[in-house]
Specification:
The chain is α/β, with parallel strands linked by helices and about 270 residues long. It has helices spanning about 20-30, 45-50, 50-60, 70-85, 100-105, 110-135, 165-185, 210-220, 225-235, 260-270, and strands spanning about 10-15, 35-40, 60, 90-95, 140-150, 190-195, 250. Strands 3-2-1-4-5-6-7 form a seven-stranded parallel β-sheet, sandwiched between helices.
């Protein structure tokens, strides 16, 4: 449904790798709602993914930028403002990776060089993106910046590894920078704590399939899809949420507030009888 919620707005969307990406879905929804935006990702991700297809579909320009590199980010904001014809109204930060997870290192046996790399990409980059925008005064009044998080930032999920720490810091950055950006320019900053989602990155977590089924069973409304997350993100970019800031907003079908469901208990009892 097209309601022109973002008509006349300009944005930057980080992290659209392929058509399974939440950022990809957000771009499609933003386009249908009347927004203009720039797509961006790290150079290596641009080579691996299919973002050019999305750029063609949404009539958007792709600008390569390493979100951990301040020079790249300064150039990204400057070029985006030039390309879009004005300051930025919304930013999506959909970036995350753990080298420890990729290498199969357990949480208690981390390679700290890998840990710091994952921290820089997954969490500190959120601060860097906002600091670059701040320094260039790149955001419009009442702009919106959104990062994607997960419940493992606040609860233990044993296979989520150091990504849990990264997401916890991401949520803290949203609160802290959200205060300063709100005072300075009424810019709001939030994170969305999304259900387990079958993206290229998410499915790389060990035991993801079991993880996904457990969450889907426990959540009263079931897991939220990437497309549904995109719809929710659009509301945060819109003027209908101008006073929502510094929040970690759960978009997970109710999973985060559950203890045990009838279905999950039934599955456990059935397994215990085998």
């Amino acid at each position: 449904m097209n309601n022109n919620l973002l008509k006349g707005k300009r944005g930057i969307i980080f992290g659209a790798l392929d058509n399974k990406s939440i950022a990809w879905k957000v771009a499609q929804h933003a386009h249908s709602e009347g927004a203009k935006f720039v797509l961006t990702n790290a150079p290596i991700a641009l080579r691996m993914g299919t973002i050019d297809q999305l750029a063609k579909e949404t009539n958007s320009k792709v600008i390569a930028a390493d979100a951990t590199n301040m020079e790249d980010l300064d150039n990204l904001f400057a070029e985006s403002i030039k390309e879009l014809g004005g300051k930025i109204d919304f930013v999506l930060h959909s970036i995350g990776m753990s080298v420890n997870v990729r290498k199969g290192n357990q949480y208690y046996e981390q390679n700290y060089d890998y840990t710091m790399k994952g921290f820089d990409v997954s969490a500190l980059s959120f601060h860097k993106v906002m600091q670059a925008a701040w320094n260039l005064d790149a955001m419009n009044e009442w702009g919106s910046i959104v990062g994607l998080s997960y419940i493992a930032a606040q609860r233990v999920f044993h296979t989520y590894n150091d990504m849990a720490d990264n997401k916890a810091v991401l949520e803290s950055i949203a609160r802290s920078f959200g205060y300063h950006y709100g005072v300075r320019k009424n810019v709001r900053v939030n994170t969305i704590s999304q259900s387990p989602t079958d993206t290229t990155a998410g499915s790389g977590v060990k035991g993801f399939d079991i993880f996904y089924r457990f969450s889907d069973d426990l959540a009263p409304l079931g897991n939220a899809s990437a497309d549904e997350c995109a719809s929710y993100t659009i509301t945060l970019f819109s003027d209908y949420t101008k006073k929502v800031t510094m929040q970690n907003l759960f978009h997970d079908g109710g999973f985060s507030y559950m203890g045990m469901s009838e279905e999950s208990m039934s599955n456990y009892l059935n397994d215990s009888k085998k």
